[in-house]
Structures are given as structure tokens and as C-alpha cells.
Amino acid sequence: MTPDCLKPRGLREAKKAQTRSALSAAALDLVSTRGYEATTVEAIAQAAGVSVRTFHNYFPGKAAALANLAANLVEEYHAELRAQPDEVSCADALRDAWRAMLDRYRSDVAVLSVLIDAVESNPDLRRHLQDNHPEVLVTGVEEVARRLGLDPAVSAVPHVVAEITFTLAVTVIRMHASPDFAGRTQDDLLDEVFSALPLLVAVPTDPHHTD
Length: 211
Fold this sequence. Notes:
There is one protein chain. The longest helix is centred in the first third of the chain and has 26 residues, at 9-34. By secondary structure, the protein is mostly helical. The N and C termini lie far apart (70 Å). Helix content is 71%, strand content 0%.
């Protein structure tokens, strides 16, 4: 076996990224079956096939492992948002970016819902996400601001829209999993829920704008 220090840098980095992803995936899988509080670092390491020492080479704790996965998913969404044509409205771009994400993870929506619940219900996980992955908050706000022609440093609108958009998407995921909406497709729910978004973004105002 070739020592890790002698492997080409690209291979070493790829192996590290693979291990990091495996640990995050194992953490999410265990949280989905055991719950956040009952999931331990030892169990995550065992599920990923590594030692606890190796786990700590990548993450300080389970919150960090889950936050890494959440940050990656949010950045993936932001990439989808940036890829939407500038010709479409901001509301349509936000909706279609979420449509692409939900289509991509259609078979894993239940697990995605578990991750969202974990982030929303655990202050230490939210705090780790905010402190160590601040880009997950900034990137989306900046893209919304660009599409609306607003300055995010002085206008509250892009910040509010980014937050509400996430809430709408979470609502769709939960409604689709609910027996109360068993007869509705995910796309149908997405269209209906996001139909309220233009009311919020159609005529934004910049508090520092003067005619």
C-alpha cells in the first residue's frame, strides 16, 4: 500500500473528500433512524467504516458532520439558482432552482426532510452552520439581490426573500410527505406554494433609493 503522503495530491484530496462525504452521509442516516440526540460520534465512525480518531481528523463532532452536508446542499441549490436565466423573474428563478433540487433528490426527499428538521430543531447544529459556513447565508442573499437590483447591505428585502424561499421549499417537502396531500404531486405543490412569492418580490423598494 502506498503511504498517503506519497500519493499524488489529487488522489489524496479526492480520498479525503470521499471520507468526509461518507462521514456526513453516515451521520444523516443515523439521525434519520435514531434521532439527533441518540446519534453518537462512535456510531457515525463505525457506520462509515473508520475509527473515532479518523472522524475527529475531519470533524470536531456530529454537528459539524451534518453541517458539512447541509452546507453542500445549500451551495448546490445556489448553483442551480445562479444557472437560471436572467430573463425569468426572481420568483420563477427561485422556484425552478428548488424544482431542480427536488427532482434530483426525489428518492431521498425523506432523508432531506430529516436533515432540515435536525438543522431547525438543534441550536448547536444551526450555530455550527452559521459560524463555520457563513457562505450558505450570504450567497443566496447576494443572488436574490442581484436579480432584484437591490443592495443587500442596505435593503432587507433580499434577506427576507432568501429566508422565505427556504421556508416555502421546506413546506413543500413536508406537505408532499403528509397523507393530507397524498393526491398532490410534488411539482403541483411547488407551483402552488411558490405562487405566493411574487407578492413579496414583485415591487421591492430600496430604502436608500431616491428618484
